[in-house]
Amino acid sequence: MATITTRSGKGSALTHNELDTNFTNLNTDKIETGNILAGTGVAVSVASGNVTVSANSTADVTYNNVTATTEFIGAHNGVTQIDAIASVNLTEGDAVYIDGLSGNTPTVALARSNSSSTMPAFGLAASTVTATNAVKVIVSGELTGLDAANFGETGITFALGDTVFVSASEAGKLTNVKPTGEANLIQNIGKIERATPTTNISILVAGAGRTAATPALNDGNIFIGNASNESSTTPFAISLDATPQLGGDLDVNSNSIVSASNGNIDITPNGTGSTNLTSAVLKTFSEVVNDIGTSSGTITPDIANGSIQKITLNGNMTFSSITGIGAGDSFTLIVVQDATGTRTLTSTMKFAGAAKTLSTDANAIDVISVFYDGTNYYASLTLGYA
Question: What is the pLDDT of residues 56-91, one digit of tens each?
């Protein structure tokens, strides 16, 4: 700062040149365009111009607007807000999204989480304004003095510490119930700092500008990656292959293969393949043999009822054909006597040996084995299994 020559300092009257120089220096260093140096503990308040505080000063500086042309370094105490223009009528506390631009100023409208076109919310309206008017939008920090009737979703009661979400049912409103369902986005935009009275609620705004990366999920659905390597949802379902194929050996690990419906379990080659059983297949007698009951006279067993069948005789028997038998098939008939007496077997089948008389002992068991070549039945009779 330039030196000012004074009469007391000089010890005599000032010359005209000294007076001119003093006025020049005062004009150059005037407060409205110059710098104010504030020492320790000095509070500075100015209406315009630049403010410089010495590096070791703890002075407080009060200023209406501070514009940092390069950067601001230091702690921030207060809200972070943006200037915007309301596209619709807004009430203090409304959640808003950026819907356009007016000159260089963003325009905002009411956010609602049921549509990606009205999300995410970028903050809460700091005041009540009508459409086309300027409004401050709180992006982070405290918004105080709110009335729950104005910003809250219908029927919602807020409590201290509640997380508040952008409503899916009412545009611009907040709720403490997280939206559900894949149709709704989830955005946690702050917490209730003060809940009572309901006409003087405070919200700590945070989480503005983004929705949850993982949305809500409908009942029965799962997340799965799609062709774009992004998460998508699909119903969780197990599709059973009606004709499954093994890629290797089936190891039952000491367990059983069980027919839950009590039906047959068939191992049948398709085509020219063969069935190879490398270990014994054990079944009970009743599972292998179909008992066709007590009878006599002409019998014609149906091979569809099993290739091994049992009959108890109460008289003579004629056995000459088998229903449903095909060339190459074999059939076994177990014959049980119900009492003593001669039981004659009559048949047109070709028997090995001439005897066709069955056992006469009570409860004796005879076995007739038959092979069919498509024309002839070749049979053998084994007697007397006691």
Answer: 555 566 666 666 677 777 777 788 999 999 999 999
Please report the sign of the dihedral spanned by the C-alpha atoms of residue 229, residue 233, residue 235, residue 237: positive
- 87 in any annotated domain: yes
Sign of the alpha-carbon dihedral angle for 210, 96, 115, 152 = positive
pLDDT at 121: 96
Compute the residue count for the chain: 386
Which residue, 180, 160, 158, 159, is CA-closest to 169? 180
Prediction pTM value: 0.49
Q: Say what the pLDDT of residue 280 is.
A: 45
Q: Whose CA is closest to 122, among 137, 112, 136, 134?
A: 137
pLDDT of residue 285: 52
> Tokens 């191992």 belong to which residue?
267
Burial class (CB in 10 A: 0-12, 13-18, 19+), 148: buried
Residue 298 structural domain: 285-385
Mean pLDDT value across residues 336-349: 83
Comparing C-alpha atoms, which of 304, 299, 336 is closest to residue 321?
299
- Whether residue 132 is found in the same domain as residue 190: yes
Any domain includes 221: no
**Which residues pair with residue 120 across a beta bridge?**
none
Residue 282 banded pLDDT, cuts 50, 70, 90: very low
C-alpha distances (whole Å) from 178 to each of 89, 161, 193, 259 are: 26, 14, 18, 48
First-last CA distance in the chain? 137
Is residue 362 a part of any domain in this protein? yes
pLDDT band per the 50, 70, 90 thresholds, residue 35: very low
Q: At which of 172, 205, 238 does a domain end?
A: 205
Pairing status of strand 290-299 against strand 308-319:
parallel
Distances (CA, A) of 116 to 82, 99, 112, 180, 185: 22, 12, 8, 15, 7
* Residue 366 in domain: yes
Percent of the chain beyond pLDDT 70? 82
Task: Judge if 101 and 190 occupy the same domain.
Answer: yes
The count of domains in the chain is: 3
